[in-house]
């Protein structure tokens, strides 16, 4: 049976969504569309401000802008994501331009749980949805789309929630990306694959996050290409869920940053 | 966020905010001198956390120094356009251990000397029956207060532990005896207090210092009555983890300030009694508060109803600092840096509200009652207990971050 994939994107500049789509296409997988969540959404902005605080959102926006500028500086040390993209010969152009060039339909929605989004999923009826951001998925969406896969940046079930790569490092747990099926809980769906990586190749928290993103893209690509999500036996959920992770406090991020810098081993830098 | 904003080192901040003055107590000098080396080690090993948060402690202690009234004690609050209030015996009492701790951490002896001055002032205004009066000083009524007396015991016990001078424990013993006389068979006090018709649950914050005095001074009957009191309040825990009667009024929403009083009192008693069941009673509430804060970037709502629904859109800054401290105490039993992160994010919100550079002495280093400033808890005022709880929370956080994970 032909595998068809619908990809979600939380941002028109989502490199993960674009890279995953491109790699899947190269593997002969039929990418049937992109569900792009618009930033012009009051509810989403409100949730973001609530989670990160106004300063956090503004800082993220500034960092994002600064990051784009920095990519043009030739002397800068390349990040794990840049090394990976170069290795697979992908030059990100933005999800809209990429989709247009590849002839893939793109639907912009206000929210992944909105009626338009659900109608798109019904219409396209993909064999799997690859989640690359766009907010929490609610039950109505998940009911019509049982195969929604996510690359979670930490080991499950130990590390649930946000900043998973950082929390796994902070709590001295294994560096691992978990490819799991999304269900109604927070990172409680069954794990269909795990992809380990070496943390010593990350000199900073940003590099650690990017390393997890790279392995997440690779993991999703492997699982979807081999169609292992179909055959995976369902697992029993642990009786007691681990404590949910939230955004790490800045003082802990700084401590982690120092620790990563002190353990940095440049020989293992490439993903 | 404290870390990225702060550029001054702790030593610079201390020099700028507070200049050391000669201490007035010889014995206290010796004690503080003997701990200086330890303070230096702390600073070296806890460099990162202390670099982030130390200036906030220094600024808050500078504010407390300016709150000292010429007639004695610390002003209850500073109100813009109005100025400093009269001294508040209740909070002057529980600020004492904070000043002693800050004196060591910041290596500023003046804070230790101030702690002793506060203690002497409190001894001077103690009623002949051992109690202290309600409200600010000088008091407009002669009504003794259970709650105020309890909070003052905290300071006296701390002074006794740090100086070994018997006059502190003697004064505390008299206060404890007065409190015992008013206790019923359930270990609580008859009649109401402030806006409640019966003993509120946050009176665990009286029972805890009372238990400390009873333990230190060997007052077995006081100790037994106190244990009964804590158990009575622990039995008020609801299935959702909330405690009935933990607000100022009988059926009004509770500020996080009094919720944290309740929790901290039980934690304090549980630790002294080594009673795991007592400590477990507050776990659902403290975990819930931590989670609610995390979901809002550390901006814990300032008040809740009995069903944990936030009331109003404000942060009770004092309450947030207190809850952060309670969370860190809980974390010492259930080691998990995720709880530490929640506490740090709450403290970051409080630190961000603190004006470190204001030219106005009553604002610089002070912590407002609420954020926004005009919100219901201590509306448009800088209470001295907010500065105290910020210091306590930060000290606990730095200690935790300095300990092995």
Structure description:
The complex is a heterodimer of chains A (271) and B (405). With 271 residues, chain A is α/β, with parallel strands linked by helices. Chain A has a single domain (4-268), classed as Rossmann fold. In chain A, 44% of the residues lie in helices and 16% in strands. Chain A contains ten helices and nine strands. In chain A, the strands form two sheets. Chain A has a seven-stranded mixed beta sheet, sandwiched between helices. Chain A has a two-stranded parallel sheet with strand order 6-9. The longest helix of chain A is centred in the N-terminal third of the chain and has 29 residues, at 42-70. The two termini of chain A are 32 Å apart. The mean pLDDT of chain A is 87. Chain B is built from 16 helices and seven strands. Chain B is mainly α. Chain B is globular and about 45 Å long. In chain B, the strands form three sheets. Chain B has a three-stranded antiparallel beta sheet with strand order 2-1-7. A two-stranded antiparallel ribbon of chain B has the order 3-4. Chain B has a two-stranded antiparallel sheet with strand order 5-6. In chain B, strand 1 and strand 2 form a beta hairpin.
């Amino acid at each position: 049976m032909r595998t068809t994939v619908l990809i979600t994107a939380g941002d028109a500049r989502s490199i993960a969504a674009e890279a995953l789509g491109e790699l899947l296409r190269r593997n002969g997988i039929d990418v049937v569309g992109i569900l792009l969540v618009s930033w012009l959404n009051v509810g989403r902005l409100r949730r973001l401000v609530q989670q990160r605080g106004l300063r956090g959102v503004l800082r993220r926006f500034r960092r994002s802008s600064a990051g784009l500028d920095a990519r043009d500086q030739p002397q800068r040390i390349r990040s794990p994501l840049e090394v990976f993209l170069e290795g697979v010969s992908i030059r990100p152009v933005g999800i809209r331009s990429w989709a247009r060039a590849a002839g893939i339909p793109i639907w912009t929605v206000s929210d992944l749980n909105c009626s338009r989004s659900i109608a798109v999923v019904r219409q396209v009826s993909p064999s799997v949805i690859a989640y690359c951001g766009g907010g929490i998925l609610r039950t109505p969406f998940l009911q019509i789309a049982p195969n929604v896969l996510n690359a979670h940046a930490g080991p499950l079930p130990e590390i649930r929630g946000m900043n998973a790569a950082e929390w796994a490092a902070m709590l001295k747990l294994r560096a691992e990306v978990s490819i799991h099926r999304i269900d109604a809980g927070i990172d409680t769906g069954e794990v269909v694959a795990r992809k380990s990586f070496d943390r010593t190749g990350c000199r900073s928290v940003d590099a650690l996050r990017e390393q997890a993103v790279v392995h997440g893209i690779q993991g999703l690509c492997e699982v979807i290409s081999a169609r292992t999500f179909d055959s995976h036996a369902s697992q029993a959920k642990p009786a007691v869920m681990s404590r949910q992770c939230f955004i790490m406090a800045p003082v802990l991020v700084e401590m982690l940053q120092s620790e990563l810098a002190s353990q940095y081993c440049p020989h293992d830098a490439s993903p | 966020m404290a870390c990225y904003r702060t550029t001054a080192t702790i030593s610079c901040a201390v020099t700028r905010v507070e200049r050391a003055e000669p201490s007035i107590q010889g014995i206290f000098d010796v004690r503080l001198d003997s701990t200086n080396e330890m303070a230096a080690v702390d600073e070296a090993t806890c460099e990162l956390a202390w670099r982030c948060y130390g200036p906030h402690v220094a600024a808050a202690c500078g504010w407390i120094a300016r709150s000292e009234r010429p007639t004695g004690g610390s002003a209850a609050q500073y109100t813009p356009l109005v100025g400093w209030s009269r001294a508040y015996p209740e909070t002057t009492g529980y600020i004492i251990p904070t000043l002693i701790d800050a004196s060591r951490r910041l290596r500023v002896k003046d804070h230790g000397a101030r702690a002793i001055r506060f203690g002497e002032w409190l001894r001077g205004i103690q009623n002949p029956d051992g109690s202290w009066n309600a409200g600010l000083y000088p008091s407009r009524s002669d009504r003794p207060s259970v709650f105020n007396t309890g909070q003052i015991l905290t300071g006296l016990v701390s002074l006794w532990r740090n100086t070994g001078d018997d006059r502190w424990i003697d004064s505390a013993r008299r206060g404890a005896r007065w409190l015992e006389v008013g206790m019923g068979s359930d270990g609580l006090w008859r009649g109401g207090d402030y806006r409640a018709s019966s003993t509120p649950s946050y009176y665990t914050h009286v029972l805890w210092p009372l238990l400390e005095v009873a333990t230190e001074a060997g007052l077995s009957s006081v100790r037994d009555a106190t244990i009964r009191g804590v158990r009575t309040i622990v039995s008020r825990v609801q299935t959702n983890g909330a405690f009935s009667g933990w607000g100022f009024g009988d059926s009004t929403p509770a500020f996080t300030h009094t919720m944290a009083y309740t929790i901290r009192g039980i934690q304090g008693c549980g630790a002294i009694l080594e009673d795991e069941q007592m400590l477990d009673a507050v776990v659902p509430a403290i975990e819930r508060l931590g989670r609610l804060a995390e979901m809002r970037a550390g901006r814990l709502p300032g008040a809740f109803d009995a069903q944990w629904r936030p009331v109003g859109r404000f942060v009770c800054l004092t309450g947030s600092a207190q809850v952060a401290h309670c969370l860190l105490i809980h974390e010492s039993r259930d080691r998990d840096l995720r709880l530490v992160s929640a506490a740090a994010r709450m403290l970051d919100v409080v630190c961000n509200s603190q004006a470190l550079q204001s030219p106005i002495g009553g604002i610089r280093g002070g912590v407002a009652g609420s954020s926004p400033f005009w919100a219901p808890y201590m509306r448009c005022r800088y209470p001295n207990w907010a500065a105290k709880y910020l210091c306590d929370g930060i000290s606990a956080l730095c200690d935790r971050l300095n300990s092995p994970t």
